[in-house]
Recover the amino acids of this structure.
């Protein structure tokens, strides 16, 4: 057992030392008030000594952070134009060499000790925290819930394809609050609600809370909108691929396009699932297919079960995608790829699309672990 006890003891000691160092730092070092200059457009006066991420959030400026500031997602990147010391070992795994050379930092790892200048995307000035109430929770598959949040008189402005962060409070054995990111499946015109599709991940802090603890009427904080996944304004054929809860941004994008009358553009939507029990929103999307001449919906099952009555496409979604590009799509039209799914799915679809002449720079994706 010694081989197990030793690393556990080291981890506990390291955690305790880190906490002690933090406490001593706050007691010994009184940094006073410091200024954060953002893009040369806005200056915040904050109490020194806190992390940049939390200092900004306290003033209503929200940087993406899928892990809630624990340094485990790498989402809270921003350019720091002041000297705040070298990159920390906790930052380097999430940054490219170019980002390091450009002094891009993780906001959750940078401590604000003196006046600092930073650069963030201008659209982050529009990100807000919403105090919502759960309007409805519905099982759309055996492991995916559709959750609708009422913004209680507030409105959210976003482009279809964006995401929000859900603030998960302490529950059960989970002591601290955390945040997780989910793409919005609601349309931009539905300004008073946010609809999310949340798949249960075994052991997942946020998904376990949603599936086992969240109830209609509960109050929940959402932060957003974030992201850059969106339909590009071109005439190229859109080749979209998703699976599971990756349905969310495409539901928003496709129904937004139909609502706005953007029907001349050709769109192919491939949705991969294992069995029929993993399919959902089929009737709604097939109805959209019947009304939109240039829209083509192609669901496919990789493990169809006998007797399930499935007469659609079968096989890996990448194989179906490859065949349709070669045999069904016009070769005289430019194409763009839109993907939402796991890193493995994104990589496999990238290979199929580039092999069929879609440039890598014309493939856009919303990737989740």
């Amino acid at each position: 057992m010694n081989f197990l006890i030793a690393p556990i003891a080291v981890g506990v000691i390291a955690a305790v030392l880190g906490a002690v160092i933090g406490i001593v730092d706050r007691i010994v070092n009184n940094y006073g008030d410091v200024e954060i200059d953002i893009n040369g457009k806005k200056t915040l006066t904050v109490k020194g000594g806190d992390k940049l991420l939390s200092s900004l959030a306290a003033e209503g400026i929200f940087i993406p952070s899928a892990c809630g500031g624990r340094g485990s997602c790498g989402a809270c990147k921003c350019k720091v134009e002041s000297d705040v010391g070298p990159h920390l070992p906790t930052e380097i795994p999430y940054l490219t060499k170019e980002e390091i050379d450009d002094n891009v930092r993780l906001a959750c790892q940078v401590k604000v000790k003196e006046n600092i200048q930073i650069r963030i995307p201008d659209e982050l000035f529009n990100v807000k925290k919403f105090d919502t109430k759960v309007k409805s929770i519905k099982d759309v598959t055996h492991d995916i819930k559709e959750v609708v949040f009422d913004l209680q008189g507030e409105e959210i402005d976003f482009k279809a394809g964006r995401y929000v962060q859900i603030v998960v409070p302490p529950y059960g054995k989970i002591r601290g609050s955390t945040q997780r990111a989910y793409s919005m499946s609601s349309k931009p015109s539905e300004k008073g609600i946010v609809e999310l599709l949340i798949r249960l991940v075994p052991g997942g802090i946020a998904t376990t809370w949603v599936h086992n603890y969240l109830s209609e009427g509960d109050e929940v904080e959402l932060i957003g909108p974030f992201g850059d996944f969106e339909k590009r304004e071109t005439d190229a054929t859109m080749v979209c691929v998703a699976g599971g809860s990756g349905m969310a941004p495409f539901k928003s994008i496709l129904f937004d396009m139909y609502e706005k009358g953007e029907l001349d553009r050709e769109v192919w939507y491939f949705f991969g699932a294992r069995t029929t029990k993993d399919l959902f929103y089929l009737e709604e999307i097939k109805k959209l297919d019947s009304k939109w001449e240039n829209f083509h919906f192609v669901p496919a099952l990789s493990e169809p079960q006998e007797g399930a009555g499935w007469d659609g496409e079968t096989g890996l979604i990448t194989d179906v995608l490859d065949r349709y590009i070669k045999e069904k799509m016009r070769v005289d039209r430019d194409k763009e790829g839109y993907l939402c799914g796991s890193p493995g799915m994104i990589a496999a679809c990238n290979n199929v699309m580039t092999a069929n002449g879609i440039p890598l720079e014309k493939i856009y994706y919303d990737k989740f672990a």
User: Anything to note?
Assistant: The chain is about 25% helix and 30% strand. The two ends are 33 Å apart (CA to CA). Confidence is low (pLDDT under 50) at residues 1-12.
